[in-house]
Every structure is written in structure tokens, then in C-alpha cells.
Amino acid sequence: MNSDDDVSVHSSHLRQNPSDDSSSPYYLHPSDNPGALLVSEIFVGNNYIAWSRAIIIALTVKNKAAFIDGSILAPPADQRVLHTAWLRANNLVLSWLMNSISKEIRSSLLYVASAVDLWNELKTRYLRSDGPRVFHLEKSLSSITQGSLTITEYFSSFKTLWDEYLNYRPFPTCSCGKMASCTCNLFDFLLMRQQSDYVLKFLVGLNDSYASIRSQLLLCSPLPSMAKVFSLLIQEESQRELNNSVDHETHALLVKQVNHQPKFLKEKSKRSSLYCTHYGYNGHTVEKCFQLHGYPPGWTGPKGKRYSPTVNAAISNEEVYITNSNENQKFSLTHEEFTKLLALANSNPSLPQTNLTPAVNLATSHFSGPISKEDDWDCS
């Protein structure tokens, strides 16, 4: 290849538009719209740290971060193709930055010529001195508590403060190159201490209801990572929600069972809370005592003074258990035996009347049909 060919290739290369090269920062994708909103967070003045971080990430994805960090400056005007490509890409980035700034601040930046100048202007104006901000962050990290927040909500609030704090207090790096030959693992020790502070500050703000699991975590040496701590707390929170749900369902079921129990059981429960002060019996009050005030017309049940309760009966599956408290006896009857006993007692008037408690009457209704009127005695 002769010299004329070299000049021709060089001239062709200069004339080539870098905007057509997808790997070049000058490349403009068809979807790159000057009116697009690059980030969701609008810059309002007091959120410079979060906003600038979001902008850098977005521009890196677009391969345009070089237009704000000063890596690509405006080429000479005599390099027409390159200058035009730079101008188009610069104005695109400038438009994206303007769109993400509030109107009140944007009005003072309308005549900034390049994206890097706009970026430096905002940095000079709004990147505050780290002293007051670090003080505020230290105070917030020391006072933040979970309160009524869930574990996820509390962790998000805490991590936002912690990340901003680390932005002002970044981990130191070695600039002399001697750290690479260090054998004492000082760097790993400092990193571990920073992570321990991270976990400890987070655990301090937890509610006292998590005191048990917090104590277990503090006994670990070294402390678990924040990811592990968060995972364990989420599991604990989920378990508590499950237990609370089961407790509520059980309580609702018990209430439903009480509300839907048979009417005669409700009546017995109601009568068992009444007490006659004249004869000392349950089931009625002295104002409704038949023995004192007379029996109602048509009363067919037994009459006369009732003896002190000595015989008690209780139902268990298909048997009736009868206890004689005076003689300390206890025996059980089957359904058939209990029916015969009642029939014998009712057919022989010479047998002494036995005071059966409401539990015996309940057994009678369980095995022999509806409860008899005898169950409505009042001191008879």
C-alpha cells in the first residue's frame, strides 16, 4: 500500500461518524429521547447524594457517564464529524439532567453549555460539608427504632441512613501499594469491624419483643452478616404472624361453638350461675323457690325438701359415671343399666328420693331423649 492509500484510509476514518458505533460513547440509540426521564427521583436540592448516585448508574448503563466526569471534552470545531457527534451526545445528556431537576432549580441552569459544567455546578452548590450531615446521620442511626414498623420497613429505613453515612465515611484505601504485600490481614479486620457496627446499630433499634433472638445473635462470634440477621428476623416475624393467625382462628371457633351450642345447654349454664340462699341449692334464687312460695298449677314433679347433693353423674362417651360423695363411692353404668335404674326408681315410690344434680339430668337427656320437667325444679 502506497502513501496515497494511507492518506485515503485515514481520511475515511476521520469522516466515519462515531455515532454509528454502538460501542462508542457518542452512539445514539433510536430509543434515546431527549424528553425521557432518566431516573425516577427528581432533584430538589436536599437529596443530592441519592440523586447523583442514581444519575451515575443510569448514565453508565447508557454508556454516557464520560460526559459528566470530564473524560470526554469538546473536540475542536475543525473536526467537524467528531465535534457534531460530541455535540449531539452532550445535549442528550444535558437534556436528561435537566428533566430530572425540579423547575425551581432548573431555571437557574438554562444557559449551562455542557453536561460536565452542569454536573460540577450542582456538585459545588449542593454537596454540603460532611461535618453537619455526618452529625445528623450519626444522631439518626443512634435514635432510630422499629416502633410500629415491620422488620422489612425498619431495615429499609435503617439501611438508607447507613448507606448515606458510608458515602460520607468511605472505607479507606491504600494509595502507596504496600497494602498488597501486607500479611497481617488488617484490611479484613477493619472491614469486619465495620460490618459488626452495622449489625449492632441495627439490633439496638429492634423492639423488645425480639429480645430473645437478639440475645442469641449477640452471643455469636463473630456476628452474623446483616443478610443473615435480616433473614432470621423475617422468619421470626413470619412465625409470629402464623401463631397469631392460629390463635385468632381458635378464638373465633370457640366463640362460634358457644353461640351455637344447644339451647338446653345454655339454659343449664344459666341456671348453674343461680343460687338459693334459703336451701343452698344452685339453679334458682330464693325469690323463685317453689318450697317457699308454692308450686305452680299443674306441677307433676316431686315435692318436698331436697336433700343435700350427694350423688353426681357425668357423661363420658357411652357411659355414665356416678359418684356418691357421702360414702366416697364411684362407679359407672352403661346406657342400658342406667335406663333400668331410672325406671326402677320411678316405678317404686317406697324408695327414698335421691337428689340428682343437673349432670344426671343431662345424662338422662343424652340417653333417653328430651330433658324432663323435673330438671326445672326449684328447691323441690
Which overall shape is indicated by the principal axes computed on the Cα atoms?
Answer: elongated
Helix and strand sequence: HHHHHHHHHHHHEEEHH
Q: How many angstroms does the end-to-end distance come to?
A: 133 Å
In spatial order, strands of the major sheet run: 1-2-3
Strand content: under 5%
Number of strands: 3
| Average pLDDT for all residues | 75
Low-confidence stretches: 3-14, 351-380
Q: How many strands, which pairing sense, and closed or not: the largest β-sheet?
A: 3 strands, antiparallel
Oligomerization state: single chain
Instruction: Estimate the helix proportion, in percent.
Output: 40-55%
Determine Rg (CA atoms, Å): 44 Å
Q: Report the total helices.
A: 14
What is the secondary structure topology, with strand pairs?
Blueprint (H helix, E strand, L loop, with lengths): L2 H13 L32 H14 L18 H20 L3 H4 L8 H12 L3 H14 L7 H18 L17 H19 L6 H8 L7 H34 L3 H10 L17 H4 L17 E6 L2 E6 L4 E6 H13 L10 H11 L12
Antiparallel strand pairs: 1-2, 2-3
Helix pairs in contact: 6-7
Sum up the structure in keywords.
three-stranded antiparallel β-sheet, 380 residues, disordered C terminus, disordered N terminus, 51% helix, 5% strand, 3 domains, mainly alpha
